[in-house]
Amino acid sequence: MKRLLSIEFQKIQKNRASKILVITYFALLSLITLIASIKFNIGNFEINIAEQGIFNFPYIWHFNTYVASWFKLFLAVIIVSMMANEYTYGTLKQNLIDGLSKKEFILSKFYVVVVFALFSTIYVFILSLILGFHFSSYDELSIVFSDLEYLVAYFIELVAFFSFCLFLGILVKRSAFALGFLFAWSIGEKILYGFLKFNLLKGSHDKKNWADTIIQFFPLESISNLIKEPITRLNAVKTIETAIGGGQNIKIYSVQLSEIIIVVVWIIVFILTSFYILKKRDL
């Protein structure tokens, strides 16, 4: 594992664009701290975002992992480019000639995916601790370290998303086309959801729930379902919803084991399919 990681990170170090993207990614994650400085006025009242409880323990684990998940596309570009460069510069063929098996090659890429996801998770963990201890109204350790399952979900989300990008990079061979395919796939899942909801299931009395049940098994939707939006958990938002009569729906915000299992299955599918494509392809 150490040898395989060493080979991959040497390739990344020699790629200036990849280094810039990695630095940009972690810089963007750090911008979460700037949310604390956001203030705006409603009439005569000044509202400070940080004072609304978004950095309170344990809510901060949910909020920060959700916000951080939006930046994963930057590392996705690195994953896709990393795979495309193997074909462009012939390093894949050279690695195989030098004695690296196709299985080891796929594992080396997957190890990089896991390392990126792990470092991102650790970074968000440290950042959240700093913000939480500065702004949170609660500092009891039992509260501080509760709801850490959001970090687990965040790690699995990144591994799954990067594994999907790795699969696309191997399938398409060109980074631009692979990213375009990723975008098209995302739009396709949304279109499919609309089709299920408004057409195929139009005879069902509970068509929205049926559509939600079916679409949750698709790759990008299942990945995004791991961490639900946290904004409507805020007391201020709940108060507004209740005032306008929209607070009747019960939403589950916690990380569900069934959703984790679905995503883990997709990770296995992505990696095995990537290996199958590489094994059968004439290099």
Give an overview of the whole structure:
With 283 residues, this protein is mainly α. The chain has one domain. It is 70% helix and 3% strand. It has a two-stranded antiparallel ribbon with strand order 1-2. A hairpin with a 2-residue loop joins β1 and β2 (45-48). α1 (2-13) packs across α6 (102-135) and α9 (175-200) runs antiparallel to α10 (207-215). The protein is globular. The protein starts with a helix and ends with a helix.
Structural class by sheet pairing and helices: mainly alpha
Please give the radius of gyration in angstroms: 21 Å
* Cα-to-Cα separation, first versus last residue: 24 Å
Which oligomeric form is depicted?
A: single chain
Total count of domains: 1
**Low-confidence runs:** none
Question: Secondary-structure map with pairings?
Answer:
Blueprint: H1 2-13, H2 16-30, E1 39-42, E2 45-48, H3 59-69, H4 72-88, H5 91-97, H6 102-135, H7 141-144, H8 149-172, H9 175-200, H10 207-215, H11 219-224, H12 235-243, H13 257-280
Antiparallel strand pairs: 1-2
Helix pairs in contact: 1-6, 2-4, 3-6, 3-8, 4-8, 4-9, 6-8, 6-13, 8-9, 8-13, 9-10
